[in-house]
Write a structure and sequence with these properties.
- Helices cover 36% and strands 22% of the residues.
- With 139 residues, it is of the alpha+beta class.
- The protein has two domains: 34 residues, Orthogonal Bundle (Arc Repressor Mutant, subunit A); 75 residues, Alpha-Beta Plaits, CATH 3.30.70.920.
- The chain has a four-stranded antiparallel sheet.
- Helix 2 packs across helix 3.
- It is elongated and about 55 Å long.
- The mean pLDDT is 92.
């Protein structure tokens, strides 16, 4: 699993060699992991700057209403916002953590005021602007 998470495009023969299995045994194991849902998919890791998302921020979002309907409405709105790359419902003082990627500060301000700030469920927003990412293993 570690080798596949590092390089999802690795050939079965190379993967088998790295993990010390025959090619056929390795292929059976990978197919079994896919069937069981352990491997949910393969994706490309895109460069945010090259794809128009050079400005990244993490946002803590608190809601003023803790009902299921309010959470579902907020989650639908975030799912529809192209700027939101991740939305996590968390425990603690806030209800959500968002990862937002946009081209620049002006685009972030537009998202903050015109999209997130207009959601009736939102009570508090705390922004954490990413200045660098010395370690990022998301695939």
């Amino acid at each position: 699993m570690r080798e596949l998470s590092r390089d999802g495009r690795i050939s079965n023969a190379e993967l088998a060699e790295r993990v010390g299995l025959s090619a056929s045994a390795c292929l059976r194991r990978v197919q079994d992991m896919e069937r069981r849902g352990l491997i949910r998919g393969y994706r490309a890791v895109l460069s945010p700057a090259a794809s128009g998302g050079g400005f990244t921020a993490y946002l803590g979002v608190g809601l003023n209403d803790h009902t299921k309907a309010a959470q579902e409405a907020f989650e639908r709105a975030m799912a529809a916002a192209w700027q939101v790359r991740e939305c996590h419902n968390v425990t603690g003082v806030i209800e959500y953590i968002l990862r937002v990627e946009v081209p620049d500060l002006a685009a972030y301000k537009l998202f903050h005021t015109e999209i997130l700030g207009t959601q009736p469920q939102v009570n508090a927003i705390t922004s954490y602007i990413v200045m660098g990412s010395p370690k990022d293993e998301r695939a």
